[in-house]
Amino acid sequence: MRRRGRHRRPLPPHGLRRGPRPAHPRGRRGHHARAGTRLAERLPADSPARLVHGDFRLDNALARLEPRPEIAAVVDWEMSTLGDPLSDLGLTLVYWAEATDAEELPVGATITSAPGFFTRREFADRYAALSGFDLAGLDFYVAFACFKLAVILEGIHARFLQNATVGEGFDQIGGAVPLLLDRAHRTLDAGAFS
Is 0.70 topped by the overall pTM? Predict the structure, then answer.
């Protein structure tokens, strides 16, 4: 057993809760590994580092409606770092829902599927027009965002199975992992807007 500190009780080798580790759904680890390998093979060339939010999505933005609708603030910066801003665009597009989507993720807002919002393609085109960034490699960033979010949600799901996470909706998180990994593979195969 590992020790947490000088005068604290020992932790079990697998984490905070005593008892068996949660079972991994069959094949899930291989699905993660295959996506990771495919992403590593398509890693884009280095680009100049810029400030990256790390969890950029509509849920992390505060909007002002008057005198015209605009983003007033972006919140939740604890995952920020220096990196490629296209990683923020990729994650935004993963969270961006459309009315025609076959599956709905149990995380993030679905307001973007309402009439009046851009499609993912329109959003990306607008981003390119305003930023001047070349989006030729966008498929990688969307697939990477799917992979990243799948890993994060897998960790949350494991904590839920250990009764270490409380709150509404955590029982649905695990179901998003295979959806995200499938979406990552589809994006690598057919493109971000397939």
Answer: yes
In sequence order, what are the beta bridge partners of 51? 82
Cα–Cα distance between 120 and 8 in angstroms, integer? 50
Q: Are 145 and 90 in contact (CB under 8 A)?
A: yes
What's the CA gap between 115 and 99, in Å, rounded?
A: 9
Phi, psi of 109 (to 5 degrees): -90, 150
Exposure string for 42-79, b = 16+ CB within 10 A, e = fewer:
eeeeeeeeeebbbbbbbebbeeeeeeeeeeeeeeeeee
pLDDT at 5 over 50: no
Question: Is residue 94 classed as helix, strand or coil in its secondary structure?
Answer: helix
The pLDDT tens digits for 132-141 are: 999 999 999 9
- 124: which residues sit within 8 A by CB, 6+ positions away? 89, 93, 135, 138, 192, 193
